[in-house]
Write a structure and sequence with these properties.
By secondary structure, the chain is mainly alpha-helical. It has one domain. It is 77% helix and 0% strand. Helix 3 packs across helix 4. The longest helix has 40 residues.
Length: 230
């Protein structure tokens, strides 16, 4: 009985990997064939700005983004360009959390049952599982690569409720910072992250959030160390 279940699970993983590989190959083939950059593709997504479906399109694209490794930061800035600071933050909160949790479950599905060798990797999994909330929160606050953290959390089988809550809280400083930067652009035609311009108030808020996130990361890391030595 157990063998049959494992075989079915392995078949599902193989099928899933084939689908994912096909999706990735198709996406990058289209991108390369049409000589598109991620920025140009983001602007194409942004062309839906004037339709009533714009928020839904943005959220769906953001949620599915990790499957094709579309840069999260680019879409976060785009949200500010398209929807302004308030709605940009709201829509990005929804899309980014959906994106993070999709990547977590993909990582857990494909790598959660992998037997890790003795040593630092296995120790890392044990530490992450024991301190799931703090580990993920620190990773968010110090701006570790977003998708890497998401997939790794699933592979290391950190507690999902802790992961969900830590992500919900931990992405806020960075999310708000980049949406505010995007909101500094007057329109989509001017959107170019390499030419970010912003007013002093926007810069002040962004800088304060960035510093606050680093201080919070230091606080939680220190607290985690104290628990270990207690």
């Amino acid at each position: 009985m157990t063998d049959n279940i494992n075989k079915k699970k392995n078949y599902a993983k193989v099928a899933g990997l084939l689908f994912w590989a096909t999706l990735l190959i198709g996406f990058f083939w289209y991108k390369t064939t049409n000589q598109l950059t991620f920025l140009e593709m983001a602007k194409t997504i942004g062309s839906a700005e004037e339709t009533k479906w714009a928020p839904l399109v943005f959220i769906i694209v953001y949620a599915l983004r990790p499957l094709i490794f579309f840069p999260a930061t680019l879409l976060t800035i785009l949200a500010g360009v398209l929807f302004g600071p308030i709605y940009g933050i709201i829509y990005t909160i929804v899309g980014e959390n959906m994106s993070a949790n999709l990547a977590y479950w993909v990582g857990r599905f494909f790598g959660g049952d992998v037997k890790l060798p003795e040593g630092i990797v296995k120790h890392l999994r044990a530490t992450a599982q024991e301190n799931s909330f703090t580990t993920v929160l620190i990773a968010r606050f110090i701006y570790l690569p977003f998708d890497l953290t998401n997939y790794a959390s699933g592979i290391l089988k950190v507690s999902w409720p802790s992961y969900f809550l830590a992500t919900l809280i931990g992405i806020m400083p960075g999310l708000t910072t980049f949406v505010l930067l995007g909101a500094s652009f007057e329109n989509l035609a001017d959107f170019d992250p390499s030419m970010v311009t912003f007013d002093p108030q926007t810069f002040g808020i962004s800088a304060a959030l960035f510093v606050a996130s680093l201080l919070l990361a230091r606080f939680f890391k220190k607290r985690q160390s104290q628990k270990k030595t207690a």
